[in-house]
Amino acid sequence: MKSANRYLGRAAAVVLATGAVLLGTTGTASADPIPGCTAGDVTAVMTGVSAGMTTYLFTHPDVNDFLTSLQGLAKSDAKQKTKDYLAANPQVRDELNAIRQPGVDLRNRCNIPLKAEIASVI
């Protein structure tokens, strides 16, 4: 349980940090924000993505265990293991992509550069 709590804590930190970075990015982009691209919109979408991922991981313990096993690995090793895992498990890949899609759509709609996102290895 400690491991799950640590993962959720890190996931929450990533969501909060992403929101903070996106706030800075959207705040400096223009005086008139794109409709649906306010700080509140960004936070709402990222909260939904985080909640969806949390639910998915708790209902798919094998995926949760795999992602938990990446803790402590070098970023490049974790990234490669994740790519290999998702290639071997296309249904999991598609389900995770579906959960993340609202964030991708938001980034594209609001012209938020990928560099502004604090990306995980997924």
TrEMBL record:
InterPro entries: MHB, MHB_sf. Gene3D superfamilies: Haemophore, haem-binding domain. Residues 1-31 form the signal peptide. Keywords: Signal. Residues 35-111 form the Haemophore haem-binding domain. It comes from the Bacteria. This is Hemophore-related protein. The lineage of its organism: Bacteria, Bacillati, Actinomycetota, Actinomycetes, Mycobacteriales.
